[in-house]
Amino acid sequence: MVMAKPSLLLESISIIFLLPWLSSSCPEYQKQALLQFKSSVLAINPSFDTLDSWNSSTSSCCLWDKVTCSSPSNSNSTSSVVIELHLSFLFAEFMPSNLLAPLFLIKSLRELDLSWNSINGQISALGLGNLSNLVHLDLSWNSINGQITALGLGNLSNLVHLDLHRNSINGQIPALGLGNLSNLVHLDLSGNSINGQIHTLKLGDLINLVHLDLSSNWFNGSIPPQLFQLKYLQYLDLGYNSLEGGLSPKVGSLRDLRILDLTSNRLSGELPEEIGNLTKLQLLSLGSNKFSNGIPSSISYLRDLEQVDLGNNSLSMEIPSDIGNLSNLSFLILGTNKLTGGIPASMQKLNKLYLLDLEGNLLTGEIPFWLFAFKDLLRLYLGGNNLTWNNNMKIVPKCRLFELSLRSCGLQGEIPEWISTQANLSLLDLSMNQLHGPFPQWLAEFHVLSSLFISHNKLSGSLPTTLFRSSQLSILALSHNNFSGELPENIGDANLFILMLDRNNFSGPIPQSLSRNSNLAILDLSSNRLSGDIFPVFDSQVDLLYVDFSSNQFSGEIPTTFPPKIKTLALGSNKFSGPLPSNLTKLRNLQRLELQDNNISGELPNSLLQISCLQVLILRNNSLQGSIPKTLSNLQNLRILDLSSNNLTGEIPIEFVNNLTGLIEAPPNRTSGVVLTLRFRTQNSITEFAVNELIVNWKKSKQGLSSHYINMYFLLDLSNNQLSREIPASLGALKALKMLNLSYNKLYGKIPTSLGDLQNVEGLDLSHNKLSGPIPTAFTKLQQLTTLDVSNNKLTGRIPIGGQMNTMVDPNFYANNSDLCGFQIHVPCLEDIPPAPKLQENDNKEEPWILLEAIKIGYPIGFLLTIGNIFLAGYFNPSPPSNSRRRRHHPHRLIKQRI
What is the CA radius of gyration of the chain? Predict the structure, then answer.
């Protein structure tokens, strides 16, 4: 007897068992539903060919791609139903959500995967809720919108896996929560816009949860205590919400937890020692919160930890000395805290580290050389501490760093040559040290370098042309050095995104090659000795946002060769002349325009007032003439206007404030505004640095407004002109103003009472005009006032009493007026002086002889004393000196003498 081969036997058995399934067919209505779905897709995209196997000629839809059917119930049955649809990655372009309607007719579905499509719009609750047998639902990475309550999730009580992340779902969790989905093991709602408090989810009923991801939403409130009862939980991500309160010690009860991510919330308080109970934890990310006090020492018990992020908090005290026990650690971020002490010696045991971030703390001591012995270390951030560098230390690095920050680490001498061994560097920050010498040629030849910061040093010489041959260099910050010479002609060949060469000694013209750089967004060449009147002509499609050429020696007309997307243009403190160009209007996105300290002449053109986005306009100290145009009110977004020190005449237009909404009402939390602070992300950190301050006349002196807080300031300065007539009462409507300066003009009339409505004003200067009448008592309402100057006018009457006016006690700010009085200047008002006491009649009529005797004795004595005083005072001098002049006594001085 011949035995059959084993392989043939297995094939025969497989065919026998598969025959019932191959011959089975899905219900006709399910087949038609799937064909209708395909037809709907083809109606939108006729070239769609992913579901070619879906056709009516095939007897059973169970044979189609991406479709799984149930097995026949018994060997004699040929009926099956569709139980799984794996339809991810079908569409590259947007598809409307209503094309899913046919799929919702297949009630037998247990698994539906529509992830990574471009489905757009709302999903009907009646449709999705019809699939009550669903166990697995994945709608992630789409553009589904609408409120989460509209999805009908409450009917899907059999769900074990629910993934809705990376959509546009909004609204609050349904009133009944998700408690009826008690079988859920995996719940992911991340990357949406769901709001409200987490406790509304009724997490206490989801006792089987293993994976919970609610990150990147708008959840607020505290972390509900029910969450810490989920004993099977292994993955917990609540990052990037608005959660508040502390982290409960009960977190230690989640002993099966592997991932804990609470990044970017508003959580505060101490980190509980009970974190040490999470001995299976592999990732701990609590960065960008408000946690304070020390890092719990129990963290050293978490021997499985691979990644720790506690950065950007307010943690203090020293780094735990036994942190080196975390031998599996590869990723450690402790930057931007208030940590003190030195770098623990135990860290040298962390030989798996590839990222170490200690940037921006209060660490002290010498930077240990063993940090450069970690073979796997790729990113090292030590800047912004009080660490010191041993300049005599010879470094032979074993690492091959991608990113290195030694900002403000006390480096001296030339740029350390050991850095030349790190040819893979993409980011290097050596700023705020004491480096000197030339720019090294080897550094210019680092062709993978993308971000280079060497600002605030003492480097000198010219820049090597090889630096700009790199196609990778995108950020170059060499500000505050002593570089000199002309800018290299090939500077535009580099694909720079940010170029900051301000506060050096560069001279000569700006190379025309800069216009070839189509990637340039930030360009700062201010405070050099650059000159010329020809500027690069940038293509209109370039995304150049910020240009600062101020404090140089440029001349000629104001250049307008910049692209229309520019938002900040600073050309102050140069030698520009002529009128303001009419084609400034092509810079329609301009938000900040600085032209101060030039020799610009002519009138303010109406064309300038058509740049509706303008928020900051500085034309101080030029030679502008004519009147202030009424159309200035067209600049609805204006927040800072400085026209001081020009030759403007005429009145302040009454219509001035009609549409200046930017000065009428300040938003409570203004976040939009002029591009003044630059933030960029490296692979695992965010670096921020500010561009130049805005110089204004602030409270009697020139001050720089920090770019970090520029959006908090609302200023109007019309001082040092020839403006006349009365101050318009309409200025009182500019309630957002923090500073109003109308000094050194020819304004007359009374101070409008409406100025007392400037509820945010801190500085008010009306000095050196011809204002008359009293200071309005409404000034007592100015609760933010810290500086008031009304000197050199014709003001009269009492200085108001009450509120901040009681603190305005510098007599110089009231000097040279007609007749002011008040305790602020130590001059009492007439109405405050008590009348002289009257002689009272003697009521004792029984002894009149005493009075008579006193008169007899006192009269002759008083007469003799009076004659003697007059004689001694020289009253009878017959001829007074010829140059004597009768003094005119000021009434207030007489009063003061009487008192």
Answer: 40
pLDDT tens per residue, range 169-187 = 999 988 777 888 999 999 9
What DSSP letter does each residue of 386-407 carry, written as one string? EEE--TTPPP---S--SEEE-T
Q: Which residues share a beta bridge with 763?
A: 739, 787
Task: Say how far apart CA 399 and CA 419 lie, in whole Å.
Answer: 11
Contact in structure between 367 and 343 (CB atoms under 8 Å): yes
Q: What is the pLDDT of residues 498-532, one digit of tens each?
A: 999 999 999 999 999 999 999 999 999 999 999 99
Is-contact 172 198, C-beta < 8 A? no
CA angle 322, 324, 325 (to 5 degrees): 80
Contacts of 500 (CB under 8 A, 6+ apart): 455, 476, 477, 478, 479, 522, 524, 691
> Does residue 480 contact residue 459 with C-beta atoms inside 8 Å?
no
Beta bridge partners of 484: 505
- The residue-averaged pLDDT of 394-398 equals 91
In order, the DSSP letters of 80-92 are --EEEEE-TT--S
Q: Which helix (H) or strand (E) holds 553?
A: strand 553-556
Give every CB contact of residue 666 below 8 A, 6+ residues apart in sequence: 714, 735, 736, 760
**Residue pLDDT, tens place only, 194-232:** 999 998 888 889 999 999 999 999 999 999 999 999 999
Beta partners for 379?
Answer: 355, 403
Query: DSSP letter string over 491-522?
Result: GGGS--SEEE--SSEEEEPPPGGGGG-TT--E
Residue 591 has pLDDT above 80, yes or no: yes
- Read off the pTM: 0.82
- Residue 671 — very low, low, confident or very high, per pLDDT cuts 50/70/90? very low
Query: Is 779 within 8 Å of 825 (Cβ atoms)?
Result: no
Most confident of 391-395, 480-484, 515-519: 480-484
One-letter amino acid for residue 74 of the chain = N
Comparing 688 with 538, which gets the higher pLDDT? 538
Both tokens of 260, joined, read 């804990």
Burial category of 564 from C-beta neighbours within 10 Å (exposed 0-12, middle 13-18, buried 19 and up): middle
- CA nearest neighbour of 112 among 58, 158, 53, 172: 158
pLDDT above 80 for 756: yes
Place of tokens 């509304």: 200
